[in-house]
Design goal:
The protein is an alpha/beta fold. It contains ten helices and eight strands. An eight-stranded parallel beta barrel has the order 1-2-3-4-5-6-7-8, surrounded by six helices. Helix 1 packs parallel to helix 2. The radius of gyration is 17 Å and the shape is globular. The N and C termini lie close together (about 10 Å). It binds 2-phosphoglycolic acid (PGA). The site of 2-phosphoglycolic acid (PGA) has 13 residues, from strand 8.
Length: about 250
């Protein structure tokens, strides 16, 4: 019997989605049916849609936030806390996405605090790491990833539930991806870093993210070190997202 854990196929809608787009989730849930899926399925819509989506998602689709504030509550206009996401029906939260690092100047210290907030609220965080094109071309990919991991996962955190997403910044929304053997090698490197930090060898799932689509999903998800996918653009349409879910490795 294959005892490998089921892969996690996560959709990140980013700042896309109005109430009328609930129809995509309705289609997704209907197509997934009620049987045991090969993969865990997660959708991270904008926070404004969580309370509505929770009424549709049922048991087949988990819901997540795209970011959270480190504090539980307080005078932080415009922010959403991990506790609020949980209260709205989320079970996961994305932390440290490169768009947050870039447009909101999030640094490792803040990302570490957000991870702790997710754990405090009982959410499962997905920590995103990844190199820029310049860093890749300078041969710094592994050094960057190791630094991001050490910065976000300092202290005694290895007992906590966690997933990782390796998202090369130059692959996000561009239609470009690393070669499959490069993805596998990088995931293997990340696994080694996590083990050094103290996580068990079969610990956090390591998702790949960056231009995953129905055409390339099967090749990427077949890689030994890949524990799932974090999907942006191709998660917006139920038909594309379903094709990617259908490409998950059968556990
Ligand atoms: P993409 O985005 O699939 O549109 O490249 C992935 C992500 O940013 O999580």
């Amino acid at each position: 019997m294959n005892t490998a854990p089921r892969q996690l196929i996560a959709g990140n809608w980013k700042m896309n989605g109005l109430s009328l787009h609930r129809s995509e989730l309705v289609k997704l849930v209907a197509a997934l049916g009620a049987g045991r899926l090969a993969a865990h399925v997660l959708l991270c819509p904008p926070a404004t849609l969580l309370t509505d989506f929770v009424t549709i998602a049922g048991d087949m689709v988990q819901l997540g936030g795209q970011d959270c504030h480190p504090a539980e509550k307080g005078a932080f206009t415009g922010d959403v806390s991990a506790e609020m996401l949980k209260d709205a029906g989320a079970t996961y939260v994305i932390i440290g996405h490169s768009e947050r690092r870039q447009y909101h100047h999030e640094n490792d210290e803040l990302i570490a605090a957000k991870l702790k907030a997710a754990w405090r609220a009982g959410l499962h965080p997905i920590l995103c790491i990844g190199e820029s094109l310049a860093e890749r071309e300078a041969g710094q990919t592994f050094a960057v990833l190791e630094r991001q991991l050490a910065g976000a996962l300092g202290g005694d955190v290895a007992g906590n539930v966690l997933s990782l997403a390796y998202e090369p910044i130059w692959a996000i929304g561009t239609g470009k991806t690393p070669q499959n053997d490069e993805i596998n090698e990088t995931h293997g490197f990340i696994r080694g870093c996590l083990t050094k930090i103290g996580f068990p060898p079969a610990g956090p799932a390591i998702l790949y993210g960056g231009s995953v689509n129905p055409q390339n999903a099967a090749g990427i998800l077949a890689l030994a070190h890949v524990g799932g996918a974090l999907v942006g653009g191709a998660s917006l349409k139920a038909s594309d997202f379903l094709a990617i879910i259908g490409a998950a490795r059968v556990a």
